Amino acid sequence: MTEKTETFAPSAEQMEALARAxxxxxxxxxxxxxxxxxxxxxxxxxxxxxxxxxxxxxFELTGLYSGRxxxxxEGFAIGEIPQPDTIHLYRVPLLAEWVETGVSLxxxxxxxxVHEVGHHFGLSDDDMHAxxxxxx
Length: 136
Fold this sequence. Notes:
- InterPro entries: Zincin_1 (IPR010428), Zincin_1_sf (IPR038555).
- The protein is mostly helical.
- The protein has one domain (12-66, 83-135): Zincin-like.
- It has 5 helices and 3 strands.
- It starts with 11 loop residues before the first helix and ends with a helix.
């Protein structure tokens, strides 16, 4: 008799582990600027974020960087409280893209993480692709 196994979509914790593994593969000089980045995995972006991004469909947004790019870290205004640099991953849109594209979830999460790290450094799309190639 064959034992029945069940397969479930990865949890937020499992997706965070994939994202942390992707962050760990990012090379220097970038890696030295990443230890303080906060990583948050949520099912969807909230309504405020979607509105700010000009999006109506919550499945359009798989990740978001919030914070100041590395080159803009100096010169906070008086009384301004610096917020932590944060990468948000949106689990359900990532899972939907995974199903639709057939790309491995690890590759997809790596792509989104590298893209958001690229925003942290103010990189161009070409530079983000080169960084992603070095992480893959």
